[in-house]
Write a structure and sequence with these properties.
This protein has about 120 residues and is mainly α. The protein has helices spanning about 1-25, 35-55, 60-80, 85-110. The two termini are about 20 Å apart.
C-alpha cells in the first residue's frame, strides 16, 4: 500500500504544479480571492495526503482528502464557468483531479474493506 500512497502524493504534486501555472492566468481581481481559495484547497489536500502517509490510522485522513478534492473540483468548475481558465486547461486539470479521485477512492476502499480485529 505504501507505493499507492506515494503515487497519489506524486499526482497531487504534479496537479499543483500545473495548477499554479493556470492560476497565474487569473484576472488580477481574482488572484487574492478565488485563486487563493484554490491554492489553500490544494495545500490542504497535500497536507492531508502527507498526514495519511505518516499516521497509523488512515481512514479519517483519506476522508479529508476526498472532501478537499470535491471542493477543489467545484472551484475548478467555477473558474471555467467564469472563463478564468480555458476549456483546454479545464479538461487537463479535471482529468488530473479525476485520476487523483480514483486513487483516493481506492485508498478509502482499502481501509473500509479491512475486517475489524
Amino acid at each position: 500500500m505504501a507505493g499507492k500512497k506515494f503515487e497519489v502524493l506524486q499526482k497531487i504534486e504534479d496537479m499543483i504544479d500545473y495548477a499554479y501555472d493556470a492560476l497565474a492566468q487569473f484576472p488580477k481581481a481574482e488572484k487574492f480571492s478565488l485563486a487563493q481559495d484554490i491554492r489553500f484547497c490544494m495545500n490542504a489536500l497535500l497536507r492531508h495526503t502527507v498526514t495519511a502517509e505518516k499516521k497509523a490510522s488512515k481512514k479519517t485522513s483519506y476522508e479529508h482528502m476526498d472532501v478537499e478534492l470535491a471542493v477543489l473540483q467545484s472551484y475548478v468548475r467555477i473558474s471555467m464557468k467564469k472563463r478564468y481558465i480555458s476549456i483546454h486547461k479545464f479538461g487537463v486539470w479535471s482529468g488530473m483531479l479525476v485520476e487523483i479521485g480514483k486513487m483516493i477512492g481506492g485508498l478509502l476502499k482499502s481501509v473500509s474493506d479491512k475486517p475489524k480485529s
